[in-house]
Specification:
Elements (H helix, E strand, L loop, with lengths): L9 E5 L3 H12 L4 E5 L2 H6 L6 E5 L1 E2 L2 E2 H11 L5 E5 L4 H10 L3 E4 L4 H14 L14 H7 L4 H27 L3 H18 L2 H12 L4 H15 L4
Parallel strand pairs: 1-2, 1-3, 3-6, 6-7
Antiparallel strand pairs: 4-5
């Protein structure tokens, strides 16, 4: 996995449990990505590096993930962040999203789910997201989703592109009518399709918009990402 400038992403993983840290680090390294590890808030704040994304445990020995995120944001306001926790309650998810995390990952989770979430976060960023953080198409992801069958991947992409104008229009119409339930339903279906087709940038924006359906900047970023897929020569 590389960013659009050809570099490998550098990730900060903050996790105090050694077994969880080892699993998460291995899964992230396989993206591929460079992974720096911290076991608590103090270690995380001591890094002099700028990271492409942060993955932060919700509960750490010397503080909470939300508090750590707030302190990290003081120096790097646009870095995307993912929270990970064993608490699957809706209240915890809502609290962490409100704190500024792009997504909340519930442990245990598969390596594939973790990698997909990181790709989405890098594609979406925070605030007004940059849809250029990842390539519009990820050939490797599309092939992996179909066990390496290139013919099926090509057919699926053609089907995806044939349905994308209708899906895009439905999302934009739901936004115009402030129908958040309809918008989230459309985006949920579209994210799955993006994953199989390898449309990583659009998947990332769709995930961010799903979490904040009233955000006009995300609507514009979504429309732009969709337009690039449908008109690649523009």
């Amino acid at each position: 996995m590389t960013l659009t400038d050809g570099t490998m992403p550098t990730l900060l993983l903050v996790e105090d449990d050694p077994i969880s840290a080892e699993f998460l680090s291995a899964a992230l390294s396989a993206l591929p990505a460079r992974v720096e590890r911290a076991a608590d808030c103090a270690q995380a704040l001591a890094f002099p590096l700028a990271f492409d994304a942060w993955l932060i445990d919700a509960n750490l020995p010397d503080g909470t993930g939300a508090t750590l995120l707030q302190r990290l944001r003081a120096g790097h306001p646009s870095t995307p962040a993912l929270a990970h926790t064993a608490d699957a309650t809706p209240e915890t998810r809502e609290r962490l999203v409100q704190a500024g995390f792009a997504d909340v990952l519930v442990k245990p989770l598969s390596a594939q789910a973790l990698q997909r979430a990181v790709r989405n976060a890098l594609a979406g960023g925070t605030g007004i997201p940059s849809t250029q953080a990842l390539p519009d198409w990820d050939e490797a992801a599309a092939l992996a989703a179909l066990a390496g069958n290139r013919e099926h991947a090509t057919l699926l992409r053609e089907l995806f592109l044939s349905e994308l104008p209708t899906a895009t229009a439905a999302c934009l119409e739901a936004f115009t009518h402030a129908d958040e339930a309809a918008l989230r339903a459309q985006l949920h279906r579209l994210q799955a399709s993006c994953g199989f087709a390898g449309a990583c940038a659009l998947a990332g924006i769709a995930g961010r918009w799903h979490a904040a359906p009233s955000n006009a900047a995300l609507r514009d970023a979504f429309a732009d990402a969709s337009r690039r897929l449908l008109s690649p020569t523009d």
